Amino acid sequence: MRITIDTDARTLAVEEDGAARTLDLWGKDAFELISDVWLRTSWNAKYPYTFTWLDRPIIQHPEDMVRTQEAICAVRPDVIVETGVAHGGSLVFSAGLMKAMGFGRLVVGVDIEIRPHNREAIEAHPLAPMIALIEGDSAAPEIVDAVRALIRPGERVMVILDSNHTRAHVARELEAYAPLVTPGSFIVATDGIMREVADAPRGKPEWVDDNPAAAAEEFAARRPDFALAPPAWRFNESALDRPITGWPSAWLRRVG
Ligand SMILES: C[S@@+](CC[C@H](N)C(=O)[O-])C[C@H]1O[C@@H](n2cnc3c(N)ncnc32)[C@H](O)[C@@H]1O
């Protein structure tokens, strides 16, 4: 695809597959095209690796944080299960929202390796009383059992999968954690952007098929109890209607 931006003429010209079109630079279509390219370049530049949340590094794209915040406020979960802890920023993010909003009891973080300095910092964090850490492979049955044991009967549960992003691992996680998700809540297979950046310098060609979005789409296709749809926007005074996200085909809502 060739994109030519002319800020004087206020146009964005696109040539793709032998077809050419010219868009209003200030219109919705141009915004979405620019955003899609920006998303891919921002991923390659490791833009999501530049943020902290309440003092802990969080590895997320900012819009995904905001949309997750909206989903958490809409669902009001008692327990949020997150696979993939890293520095603990996403655990602190979820726990902080719950505490600020006056709902929620626990955030459970699962990671195959919780490095000592990260564990120490998470356990010393003011939100630590709301966080439980479990070390192990998130798809291992004994680890899933340990997570389940922390959930009390009747609690509303949301699950965010952000660990090993191979299609096979995410498929195993979806099978294992979906039963914990309560109706109306979500299980989120993050980082499907891998399929959009397979050709980027930091990408890998096999990501075209081997990615979390593929696992989520497959799961949704054979599970009538889950529907693939991002959380509804709770405020929108624009003409925009799709997220600028590193998590395409990620949000699986439990229906029925
Ligand atoms: C992208 S980071 C998580 C980022 C974190 N959720 C955040 O927002 O800051 C991925 C983490 O997944 C962990 N991981 C990789 N394979 C795993 C597995 N099989 N089970 C559990 N965790 C795994 C890695 O150790 C790493 O800490």
What does this structure look like?
- The chain is α/β, with parallel strands linked by helices.
- The chain has two domains: 2-44, no CATH class; 52-254, Vaccinia Virus protein VP39 (Rossmann fold, 3-Layer(aba) Sandwich).
- The chain is built from seven helices and twelve strands.
- It has helices at residues 28-44, 62-75, 89-101, 116-123, 141-149, 167-177, 212-222; strands at 2-6, 11-16, 19-24, 51-53, 56-58, 79-83, 106-111, 131-135, 157-161, 186-189, 226-228, 251-254.
- Strands 8-7-6-9-10-12-11 form a seven-stranded mixed β-sheet, with helices on both faces.
- α4 (116-123) links the parallel β7 (106-111) and β8.
- It is globular and about 60 Å long.
- The protein binds S-adenosylmethionine (SAM).
The secondary-structure class comes to alpha/beta
The unique ligands bound to this protein are: S-adenosylmethionine
Shape: globular
Q: Indicate the CATH class of the largest domain.
A: Alpha Beta
Radius of gyration over alpha carbons?
19 Å
Strand content: 15-25%
CATH architecture field of the largest domain:
3-Layer(aba) Sandwich
Number of strands: 12
Low-confidence spans: pLDDT under 50, at least 5 residues? none
For the termini, the CA-CA separation is 42 Å
* Secondary-structure element pattern, one letter each: EEEHEEHEHEHEHEHEHEE
Q: If you average the pLDDT, what whole number results?
A: 98
**What is the domain tally?**
2
CATH domain topology of the largest domain: Rossmann fold
Biggest sheet strand order reads 8-7-6-9-10-12-11
Helical percent range?
A: 25-40%
